Amino acid sequence: MTDADTLIAPQSQCFYADFIRQGECPGYNRSREEMLESIARKHVYLIRCEGQTIGTIIISDLGGGNDYLGCICVLPAYENKGIGQLAVQYLDFLLFHTRSIGLWKRLPIKTRNHYFYRKLGYAVTREYTVGNVRISYFERDI
To answer: What CA–CA distance (Å, rounded) separates 92 from 90?
Structure first.
């Protein structure tokens, strides 16, 4: 709970470009109350490098051996350095009891993220469109 403010800043930085492009983004500019609620109800982790918080991971336990990856983000200055891959490998270690992990991703905003998740073994299992935005559900068996 004491890390709530520490978690908000990197998420806002990570999702700022999405907010500017679309005019909305659930991960951008979360309130302290929203973050405290996430911490209370979900598994929330800081991604740290050299003492600085550079990203976050938020996971929900859906029960029955299924989890939902609500957020994984790394500050833009730290992208393309393998940090996200290490974070997902760490999740595999933490979630040894899990059968599958799912997540929703929007296109075309974060098309590069689609490549990232596919590279890590996730596959699109559902898709739908809201307005001009295609949304894909990725899932990976552990």
So the answer is: 5
Beta pairing partners, 74: 55
A 10 A CB-CB count for 130 gives: 8
Instruction: Specify the pairing of strand 133-141 against strand 52-63.
Output: unpaired
Positions of E strands within the chain: 43-49, 52-63, 66-74, 100-107, 123-130, 133-141
- For residues 140 and 142, what is the distance between their CA atoms, to the nearest angstrom? 6
In this predicted model, what pLDDT tens digit does every residue of 38-97 receive, in sequence order? Answer: 889 998 899 999 999 999 888 988 888 888 888 888 998 999 999 999 998 888 888 877
pLDDT tens digit sequence for 12-24: 888 888 788 777 7
Whether the link from the prior residue into 26 is cis, omega within 30° of 0, is no
Using alpha carbons, select from 40, 103, 99 the residue that is nearest to residue 71: 103
Amino acid at 40: A
pTM: 0.81
Tokens of 104: 């929703």
